[in-house]
Specification:
Helices cover 22% and strands 43% of the residues. It has 74 residues and is an alpha+beta fold. Strand 2 and strand 3 form a beta hairpin.
Length: 74
């Protein structure tokens, strides 16, 4: 897939650390599978993976967690 940000690079399979903040909660999720632009580094999560990541973040927010570091589990 052609990168929609830089419009130059092609995306390749890889993994990233996703950092999300919501209110007072910061969640880092390591080893999230994604497509990464080989030119600019922009990454694209599939709908399924995005949904899983957001559920993990919602759980941390519900538990009033301030900072949480997780590994992505399929």
């Amino acid at each position: 897939m052609k990168c929609v940000i830089c419009k130059l690079g092609e995306t390749k399979k890889g993994s990233v650390t996703v950092t999300l903040e919501r209110g007072e909660t910061t969640v880092l999720i390591k080893n999230v599978p994604t497509d990464i632009c080989e030119n600019c580094g922009e990454y694209y999560l599939s709908d399924e993976i995005s949904e899983r990541v957001l559920k993990q973040v919602e759980s941390a927010v519900t538990n009033n967690t301030e900072v949480e570091i997780l590994r992505y589990v399929a």
